[in-house]
């Protein structure tokens, strides 16, 4: 059941009205050259779009945090103009709204001496390329190798407790640009720095800046340099003290000062940044904590409509049983949680990867689990865990989602790499060791996401992350409400 927090409804925020559109080049990136016949080859240039809002404020698009970088294509609008001789007179022509991701290639083909017609043809092709396709969960696993291209006016998002960027990967797949991500765990500084490097590698292309401070430290500074009224604000506060595996019970001695100050910092972010949509993800027991109450109170006081529920992400096509608390809040309009989809078994998700995995041998306890299964079932591929204790079965048949993936699967008690963490038994007797790539796929990561080589770091990113495939559905649903269209 979806729980809805009581809140008063503020009138919808007035839409921005464009009263002035400036397409004057701020800085020409290429010089127009005259061909021998007097024909203009063309000029690629960057400019800013100026909009005046109803409240009298003037803003420039694309939106940029801090200073605008003259060398970053995503910080500018782009156009191409040229002259053609028509009926004996030179006439100026132009083509605008060029995707910034196409700019480097346009510059290259210009340098190689391409004729104007070829440059224009390339630009038109770049403009018609579909950006940020929907992720069709389990049915689209072999179709996510290409990193999405986002338009320069894509909605923007701020992420708190970012980890390696699972939520950001889902945002990007949904056509949303993460611009700031905050991530640092003072109890694991080396791991935090390693994760931050991977985050930068994956999302710097989209102009995302990773801040290696705690959310509490950023809140104390007043969120300097953060965009006000971003389209989205997301938070996944550290959940160790609320997880089922933790011996302490939430709200009964397990909740620490750090948990409470983190929640206060999130509440401050909501009040100061005033996002159009706020989302939160955590373990189920977080909903019983004082920390969660602090965040709910801030949302209610600011007039947000709130929906939250504990969902099993396997019901949303994730090939993994993963129960999590998910909250969506919006102001002036309601954003509901997405509806479910067809469940997906773990084998379907990674079958094409199995031939690339290394051979393995089952441990005694794994063999016992296998024998127990075969005693009452026909042979079928089995995913059998090597490490960790569980109350549920250590094995999963092919048609079922796998067990919840945890960071502890990939590291020992000292935080060092585990060489193997799960095995796949096949009916022909072969045994394969589940790879990091396979584990990432079971966590809903797209193939374009780059993982580090170190198993402990990669496994931490996987175990900590919001499954990107679920996040994509969450934000596509939010976008449909935000834009007032049905997806």
Structure characteristics:
single chain, 487 residues, alpha+beta, Rossmann fold, 3 domains, 8-stranded mixed beta sheet, plasmid
Question: Briefly, what is this?
Answer:
By secondary structure, the chain is α+β, with helices and mostly antiparallel strands.
Task: Please describe what this structure looks like.
Its EC number is 2.1.1.37. One of its GO terms (biological process) is DNA restriction-modification system. It comes from Nostoc flagelliforme CCNUN1. Keywords: Methyltransferase, Plasmid, Restriction system, S-adenosyl-L-methionine, Transferase. There is one protein chain. Helix 3 packs across helix 12 (468-482). The protein has 3 domains: 25-128, no CATH class; 139-342 and 470-482, 3-Layer(aba) Sandwich (Rossmann fold), CATH 3.40.50; 346-462, no CATH class. The chain has helices at residues 103-111, 116-128, 166-173, 189-203, 215-220, 257-273, 290-301, 346-350, 364-374, 436-442, 455-464, 468-482, and strands spanning 3-5, 25-28, 43-47, 49-52, 58-61, 77-86, 89-95, 156-160, 177-182, 209-211, 232-235, 277-282, 305-312, 323-330, 382-385, 395-397, 422-425, 431-433. By secondary structure, it is α+β, with helices and mostly antiparallel strands.
């Amino acid at each position: 059941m979806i729980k809805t927090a009581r809140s008063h409804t503020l009138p919808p925020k007035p839409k921005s009205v464009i009263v002035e559109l400036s397409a004057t080049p701020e800085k020409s990136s290429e010089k127009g050259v005259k061909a021998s016949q007097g024909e203009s080859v063309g000029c690629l240039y960057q400019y800013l779009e100026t909009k005046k809002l109803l409240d009298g404020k003037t803003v420039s698009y694309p939106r940029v945090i801090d200073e605008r970088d003259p060398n970053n294509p995503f910080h500018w609008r782009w156009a191409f103009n040229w002259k053609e001789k028509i009926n004996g007179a030179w006439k100026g022509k132009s083509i605008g709204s060029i995707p910034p991701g196409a700019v480097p290639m346009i510059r290259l083909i210009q340098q190689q001496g391409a004729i104007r017609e070829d440059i224009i043809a390339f630009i038109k092709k770049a403009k018609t390329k579909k950006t940020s396709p929907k992720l069709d969960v389990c049915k689209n696993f072999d179709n996510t190798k290409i990193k999405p291209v986002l338009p320069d006016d894509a909605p923007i998002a701020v992420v708190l407790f970012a980890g390696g960027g699972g939520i950001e990967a889902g945002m990007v797949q949904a056509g949303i640009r993460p611009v700031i991500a905050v991530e640092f765990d003072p109890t694991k500084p080396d791991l935090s720095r390693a994760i931050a490097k991977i985050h930068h590698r994956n999302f710097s292309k989209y102009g995302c800046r990773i801040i290696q401070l705690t959310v509490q430290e950023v809140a104390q500074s007043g969120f300097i340099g953060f965009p006000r009224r971003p389209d989205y604000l997301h938070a996944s506060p550290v959940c160790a003290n609320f997880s089922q595996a933790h011996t302490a019970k939430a709200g009964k001695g397990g909740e620490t000062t750090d948990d409470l100050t983190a929640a206060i910092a999130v509440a401050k972010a909501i009040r100061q940044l005033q996002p159009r949509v706020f989302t939160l993800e955590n373990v189920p027991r977080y909903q019983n904590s004082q920390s969660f109450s602090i965040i709910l109170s801030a949302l209610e006081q600011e007039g947000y409509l709130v929906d939250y529920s504990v969902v099993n992400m396997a019901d949303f096509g994730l090939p993994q049983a993963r129960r999590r608390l998910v909250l969506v809040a919006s102001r002036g309009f309601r954003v509901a949680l997405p509806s479910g989809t067809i469940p997906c078994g773990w084998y379907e998700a990674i079958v094409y990867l199995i031939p690339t995995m290394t051979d393995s041998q089952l441990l005694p306890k794994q063999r016992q689990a296998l024998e127990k299964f075969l005693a009452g079932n026909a042979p079928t591929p089995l995913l059998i865990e090597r490490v960790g204790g569980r109350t549920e079965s250590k094995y999963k048949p092919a048609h079922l989602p796998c067990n919840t993936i945890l960071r502890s699967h990939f590291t020992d008690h000292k935080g060092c790499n585990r060489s193997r963490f799960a095995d796949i038994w096949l009916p022909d007797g072969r045994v394969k060791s589940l790879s990091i790539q396979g584990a990432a796929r079971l966590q809903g990561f797209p193939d374009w996401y780059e993982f580090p080589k170190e198993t402990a770091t990669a496994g931490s990113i996987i175990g900590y992350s919001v499954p990107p495939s679920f996040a994509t559905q969450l934000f596509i649903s939010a976008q449909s409400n935000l834009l007032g269209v049905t997806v």
